[in-house]
Amino acid sequence: MFATDNAIQVTDKAKERVQQLLAEVGNGNDPSYFLRVSVVGGGCSGLSYKMDFDNELKPADQVFENNGIKVVTDLKSFLYLVNTVLDFSDGLNGKGFFFQNPNASRTCACGESFAV
Q1: How many helices (H) and strands (E) are present in the chain, helices listed first?
Q2: H or E stretch at 70
Q3: Does the pTM exceed 0.90?
Q4: Is 21 left (phi over 0), alpha (psi -120 to 50) or beta?
Q5: Going residue by residue through the chain (116 aa), what tens digit of pLDDT does each one get?
Q6: Topology of the domain covering 9-115
Q7: Fewer CB within 10 Å: N-end or C-end of the chain?
Q8: Which of 20, 21, 27, 24 is nearest to 55 (CA)?
Q9: Residue 86 CB: number of other CB atoms within 10 A?
Q10: Which intervals hold domain Core (predicted)?
């Protein structure tokens, strides 16, 4: 199922980094691979983001294509990720992916976990 409303957005910097990582693991030219984003219990605030590369869709997966990146999430995680933006920072204050999640009521200082 391809969803378009309330999609997970991918910034240009995140797109570049995802493409680099796909190439590094040898899947850069394989269109069956996508970025799987999920929400799992844990972290200082109660919920954490998890990202992996995958090539197998599950029946209840929500599929988005934004900025040339295919993003897939399970339905339960999607409820926490509606209208979220995936970004990447390579600045002095830290390097890595981060989420701009309008559904999070609070986040921890490290930015890797959140609460709703």
Answers
A1: 2, 9
A2: strand 69-73
A3: no
A4: alpha
A5: 444 466 789 999 999 999 999 999 887 788 899 999 999 887 666 788 899 999 999 999 999 999 999 999 999 999 889 999 999 988 777 678 888 888 877 666 555 555 55
A6: Hypothetical Protein Aq_1857; Chain: A; (2.60.300)
A7: N
A8: 27
A9: 27
A10: 8-111
Furthest-apart CA pair in the chain: how many Å? 41
- In the chain, where the domains are located: 9-115
For the chain, give the number of residues: 116
**Residue 50, beta-bridge partner list:** 38
Through-space distance between the first and last CA atoms of the chain, rounded to whole angstroms: 26
Burial tier of 109 (Cβ tally within 10 Å: 0-12, 13-18, 19+): exposed
Distance CA 51, CA 71 (A): 10
